[in-house]
Every structure is written in structure tokens, then in C-alpha cells.
Amino acid sequence: MWKKGSKALAAVIILGATLVAPAVAPSKAAAAGLSASEQSRLAEYWSPVLYQDVGNNPEGDIPIPVNFDGDWSGLNNWDNIGKYAKGSSLPLKPSVYWSVVESDTHYFIGYDLFYATHDPRGTLGDHENDMEGMMFTIRKPGTAKKDGTKVTNPNGELELALMPRHAKLGMYGPANKAVQYDPGMSSVYYDSNFTTETNASGTHPLVYSAQNDESFLESDGDFGHALKPYNGKGAKGKSGYVFQAGTPVNLNASGGQLWDSKIGNFDDSKRMGYELIPLETSLWPLRNDFTLDLWSSYGTFKGDNGRANAANAPWGWSFENYRDLGSGRMLYDPAYLVDKLFDGLGEFSLTYRTNPYSGQ
Question: For this UniProt entry, which residues form the secretion signal (predicted)?
Fold first, then answer.
């Protein structure tokens, strides 16, 4: 189903340089949808550079696998994360979950970050487990943009970035306003622009993640791992790490020296690798397994520290002003979500070719 100028969602990013990574052949993708290897390659190509602010207990500010402690219980993550702090012999490896959904005209790529605790200063916001994420809308090669020109880049063109911030939906657009989507609802607006960097591995949005050790009442909402585009201003307290997709580091290797040697005011020369984990074959297959102590209900993690059962997986997310669009849309039906929120989309399809999450 093709649509022009239909409703669409949040934020976009700029591709400022020629892309150099190997391309996904449009003809192959068009014939049968993306293969697993093509999805993985696209997820790596568009993977964010993460500027992770950290506080007094930095182990709680590192994105990690849900089963970092060797089990799938959501009830012991708060208790166990301290065992992985600096000085531990237990491995703590930064990790990011990814998902790819493909329509006739777009790739919708999600990146989700799990933290063991959400523990800002002031007990009002405390809860066990925390999953934050982002979704990038990427126009496929050969399809027409809002201005009528067609995408020639073989890896597509990034048009939109959505980053939930404490149940609100952050929307970030390209600097070139001529190619921004048009708000389709009165509550839709662009929060700001953000930037990318292009290198040999792909084009990567620059993303900031707030630390736990900040006030729950922080004026910009920068607490508890809230995400937004990185603005280049450095880490609060000059205390943060920079992660990019690649060979994941073990922060506790070599006696935990990395905790000290890599921390700084977001020094790009000290970047460390994070592991990309496919959501489809890791956490997603467990979504209906209530024999585990992982879920309190569908899409909600079980947790008993602070507010009980207060963290959601992507298929449980909904956002202020848009609750009526349904929980989990950003994962299982992203084209519908974008279409509802924005107009002026250029060629835009609601027909999926690759969507392992459509059955919920």
C-alpha cells in the first residue's frame, strides 16, 4: 500500500557524507524481504554511538543484557548489579538490543538499552529494571522523498528518530527542514535536530543517555537513562563513557582498569565496543513465558525494588498523548505509528515485507 503525504512520526537525521559500507541490494530486498544477515548488517550500519553519562555507581549506568547475571529473573537484578561493580571478577559487557522491520518503502530499526536499575536521586522514581530505546525511520533506496527526489544511497536515508523519554515521545528531525515530515497532530513537534557520523562501518546517530545519579526533578528530564541526541557538550561532572558497536569490552577485565582509563568528558578517543544482540532471537521469544520471574504481565518486567513492576519492554511501551494508538506500536507496527503522527511523508507504505513482531 503506497501513500503520499500521509501521517508520520517523529525525528530525522542527516546524512552528510557518502556512505561507504557494503549495500543491501534493493532488488533482493524487494523480492523477498531482508534476510537475517541483511538485517544484522543494516543494524550494524545504523547503530548509534552512545554517550553514556555515569554517576557514583557506574555499573548501574551501563546497558547490559537482561540476563547479565546468568538468569532470566527480573527480581534480583537490582541486588546483583552491585556484584559487577569495579573490582569484581565477574564480566560486565555493554550490550544493545536491535530490531528491524521492513515495509515496501522503509526500514524501521530499533535499538533498545537495558539497565538493571532506574535509581535517580529522590526515591520517587526508583524501580528495578529499566529499558530505554530509539527507533530510526530509514527510507529505502529507489523510493521518492517528500520533495520528489529519490534515494540513491544503497543503504537508504535516515528520515526520523524517535526516543522515548520517561513515557514521552521525543521527536528529532533533520537540519534540512525542507525534508522534514509535517506534523499531523497538534501534539506532534520536533524537539530538536541531531547529527550523525559516517565512517567505514556505516552512518551512526550520536545519542546521549542520562545517568542514574541525577535528580528526579532535573529540569531537562536528563535522569534515569533518558535518551536524546548528543549535543557535543560533554558529560555532566565530566564523567561518562562512549560506546560504539563492535567487539564488546568486559569492563572488569584486567582488574577493572577500563573503569578508570576510559572514563572522561566523552572523549571519543576512548570509545569502547558494545555487543549488538538481535531482539528477535533473544528476549522476544520469552515474551509469553510466565514461568520465568521475568514478567509481571505482558510487556512489563517483574521487579520488587522501588516501585514494583514499573519497567516495560518495547512491546509494552506507550506514550503520553498517544495512548490510543496502542502499546508496542513502535516495535510491531512502526509504519502505522509514523503515518498517524505525521503528514508529508513522500512515498510511504503500510505493507510489511519483514516483520517478525507482527504476531505479537
Answer: 1-23
Q: 2 in helix, strand or coil?
A: strand
Taking CB atoms within 8 Å and a gap of at least 24, the contacts of 254-261 are 255/87, 256/86, 256/87, 256/88, 259/58, 259/86, 260/86
Q: Do the beta carbons of residue 98 and residue 59 sit within 8 Å?
A: no
First to last CA, the chain: 22
Q: Are 348 and 106 in contact (CB under 8 A)?
A: yes
Whose grid coordinates read 569490552? 249
Q: Is 224 left (phi over 0), alpha (psi -120 to 50) or beta?
A: left
State the cell numbers at 160.
526520523
Reported confidence tier of residue 123, pLDDT bands at 50, 70, 90: low
Going from N- to C-terminal start, the domains of the chain cover: 2-354
C-alpha cell at 342: 505525521
Please tell me the distance from the alpha carbon of residue 1 to that of residue 350, in angstroms, as a whole number. Answer: 6
